Predict the structure.
Amino acid sequence: MMHAVTSAASTASRRLADAGSAARRYFPFRRDDDEERLHFAQHDKTEMTVFNDETGGGDVIKDGDVAEKGVEINGSLPQDSLSCKKVEGSNEHMARKSISVWDAGWNVTNAIQGMFIVAFPYSVLHGGYWAIVVIIGISYICCWTGKILVYCLYEEDEHGNKVRVRNTYVDIAEAVWGKRKGAQVVHAAQFVELIMTCILYLVLCGDLLKNSFKHSGIPESAWTIISAFFLVPCAFLRNLKSVSRLSMGCTVAHIFINAIIFGYCMSRIEHWHWKDVRILVDINYFPIVLGIVVFSYTSQIFLPSLEGSMDDKHKFNKMMHWTHALAGIFKGLFGYVGFLTWGWATKEVITDNLPSDIFRAIVNLFLVVKALLSYPLPYYAAVELIERSLFMGRPDTQFPACYALDGGLKVWSVFIRSLLGVFILLLAIYIPHFAILMGLIGSFTGTMLSFIWPCWFHMKLMWHKIPLYQKLFDVIIILTGLICGTVGIVYSSQALVAAYHENSDM
């Protein structure tokens, strides 16, 4: 009898093994090809984060090389990310790893130092010494709001110990405004900022190429379309692993460009326009300057997950201090030196001031390459927001999933992604002013994400725990954000309309 049972069990085991082998031949759920089949992780929320941490214990979910550069697209991961279920668009190839304080500082530096620093001499042109004060002052404010935003992730238990009860910016918003409203508001602000960032990259490419080949007779809009042609493959992106491998190239190009510009400015020190830097501000353009500076410091959306991934969270505040201090000093110095070199002739993008056509073209081409390599990240994040909200499959969302069982994109989903790219291109063509558009974005989403919301959340969640001076400081920042944001939106919009009519008359 025992022998019969054993024989039957052995037979069943072999049949199950054979069935499993057959299933693995026909379905893409094999362990051995995960390296090539990196799909999406199944998430409950969507947020553009850096090194997401679901447990709050310092362990980080890392997607291949993406996390090496400090960028991952997605918010909450499943409770057990290493054994997440195989579904349409799932990603099993995930690993946990904590990061050091230096890794965290590198990521924050990348977020707030970006290529938009080329517009800072133009800020000094219209803001004078006050622009430098604003650059350093906003650095301090954004450092403060970043710290209090992370502080809102924690609550005290019955023993007075701090416990991490939230993981993302969205979680904090949901705790204040409710689950549905909080997620919708933050997602909307993030989507606008991501789309505007994509537009900025295309506008910058068109402006740089036009000024690099002035005698070609090709208009800026045509250069913008040519640049967009190289971004068509973005519609086929399924993950950011391949994109992340280009991040080091972006960083090298950024360092190279800044070194060349700064070196040229120092070589012209005998001809600096010391007297052109004024104390009074241009009231018509100074609000735009504020928006430009605020936009360049927007990193709050990344900070909650970044702090959660650190192996020593006690050093988070120190990391924020030295990264923002260095950013404020470098940006202020770059803007000041750039303006001293060209004075009132300073242009929206400082590389357009370089003297030799060949020299300017070489530097501008490096900037174009950097912009094109930077474009896929915000584009992919915007696509993720749309797909997580509308295309996760019924009954979770209104429309079917964008991915087949093998992880490939469906034809109609590629078409929708392409439409988003065309929409971004059209806006870039009709809003061809880099600095003004940057000021508008900073005044709109930048002030909300970096000024108003962190202080409001801080007071709402921690009102009975924080001292009076912090409450007063939060109120001052909120009022400053509301005033500067409103004025900046009005003046930036007016400047865009005026610039558009000016281009139409030409």
Summary: Strands lie at 48-49, 61-62, 72-73, 95-96, 154-156, 162-164. The two ends are 97 Å apart (CA to CA). DSSP finds 16 helices and six strands in the chain. Residues 468-505 form the longest helix (38 residues).
